[in-house]
Design a protein that fits this description.
By secondary structure, the chain is an alpha+beta fold. It has twelve helices and eleven strands. A five-stranded mixed beta sheet has the order 6-7-5-8-9, with helices on both faces. A hairpin with a 2-residue loop joins β6 and β7. The longest helix has about 50 residues. It is elongated, with a radius of gyration of 38 Å. The chain starts with 7 loop residues before the first helix and ends with a helix.
């Protein structure tokens, strides 16, 4: 049996938040660095311009001043260069002010005489420009976070020791609740007539633990049903109407499970628990009473039978103008309930299975199952769908379906 890494959605959210803050801090630091770089360049160019424009300004040679200013305006960071005369009027202007860093008026002086001043402005720094200029780094950061996510889904799976600990805790809980070793007539061994019965108190601790393992190793599979209710019509029903509808669904589910398990080929499979319908749906847990019971097949066929029975109920109610909803089902090992239900909710498929290899081999006698197409997560890779049932399985399902509606 495969186990998924815990809290995958939570970890994915953490990674997305981490990626967001990485990008924000990268943009902020890049903006600060480029701003400081532009300031240094502008101050340097302003100083050099003052030196180069001293002679042309002293003779008011605007052609030379324009040529010199244009040369400095070709610098990559420079947006505009402006030269003013002694009366603070613009003599030469090259480029346009883009809102970047702008130097203060740098005075052009010849001896004791002020000839004018120079102003240099840099290009504005934009977030889009930073992102476009560093797209390779950003792509690498996204890929790195994606690799961390993939690594987590593999590395964070429960170890063999943790699985053993969970199994031990499960055995202890079953023992404390009296579900094994005589706690339930269906699970306790029947004593023979010519032998004395032995009470739980007289069983040695080691023997008792071995008996627990023997009784809990049989497979347990669960069929889950959820409503297909994209418009949340259940929320609009009155309490009494909802209660009546759930009661009808409970009756349908109970009879479907009962009639299906009457089939001889499912001997040894029993109903361990039925969770009645509510807004979240319902479930039936099936238990194998021996190693030969086809409990995986029973779980899959019950999931298919529920769909068949509900289709008739849905069509009848729709024809009479009464409320009814379509259903979706899942079948899986009981330990995988939450995982397969999450896949069913995301993929919106009528029926989803999550079976291990041994169960797949068992189902091969009843039909054809295939892996879920285009899986997007580890859980979806472990899921299957039924693509075909053989004629024998179809006939058995039809008999059980008809028995649900015909018999009292």
């Amino acid at each position: 049996m495969s186990y998924s890494a815990p809290k995958q959605v939570t970890f994915l959210i953490v990674l997305l938040v981490s990626l967001f803050f990485h990008i924000v801090f990268f943009v902020v630091s890049s903006n600060r660095y480029l701003t400081e770089q532009n300031r240094t360049v502008a101050d340097r160019i302003a100083t050099e311009l003052v030196s180069d424009l001293t002679m042309p300004s002293s003779i008011n040679d605007r052609v030379s001043m324009s040529y010199i200013a244009n040369q400095y305006a070709q610098e990559p960071q420079v947006a505009f260069v402006a030269v003013y005369n002694a009366e603070d009027n613009i003599v030469v202007s090259v480029g346009e002010n883009e809102g970047g860093y702008q130097t203060k008026n740098e005075a052009i002086v010849s001896g004791d005489k002020a000839l004018g001043s120079v102003v240099v402005g840099t290009k504005a720094i934009s977030t889009a420009g930073i992102l476009m200029g560093q797209w390779l780094f950003l792509l690498a950061m996204i890929v790195l976070h994606g690799l961390v996510w993939v690594a987590y889904t593999f590395i964070a799976r429960p170890s063999r020791e943790l699985r053993a600990q969970i199994e031990q805790q499960t055995r202890d809980r079953l023992l404390s609740q009296g579900l094994v070793l005589g706690g339930s007539p269906s699970l306790a061994p029947e004593p023979s007539d010519d032998k004395m019965t032995v009470s739980d108190e007289n069983i040695a601790p080691k023997e008792k633990e071995e008996a627990v393992v023997q009784n809990t190793r049989h497979a347990s599979y669960t069929t889950q049903i959820r409503f297909e209710d994209p418009n949340q019509l259940l929320q609009a029903l009155s309490f009494d109407h909802k209660k009546m509808y759930f009661a009808l669904c409970d009756q349908m589910l109970s009879k479907a499970a009962e009639k299906l398990l009457e089939a001889p080929f499912l001997v040894g499979v029993s109903i361990y628990a039925i969770k009645g319908f509510d807004e979240n749906g319902a479930s039936v847990e099936l238990l194998a009473n021996n190693d030969h019971a086809k409990v995986a097949t029973a779980s899959m066929m019950l999931a298919q039978l529920v769909l068949m029975v509900n289709q008739i109920v849905y069509d009848r109610h729709l024809k009479q103008g009464q409320f009814a909803l379509k259903m979706c089902t899942t079948a899986s090992d009981t330990a995988q309930n939450n995982a397969v239900l999450g896949v069913s909710s995301r993929r919106k498929l009528p029926m989803v299975l999550m079976f291990e290899d041994a169960a797949k081999q068992e189902l091969a006698h009843s039909g054809t199952i295939e892996n879920l197409p285009n899986p997007l997560s580890m859980s979806e890779r472990d899921c299957q769908i039924v693509t075909a049932l053989n004629q024998q399985a179809v006939n058995r399902l039809r008999v059980a379906r008809d028995a649900v509606f015909i018999e009292d």
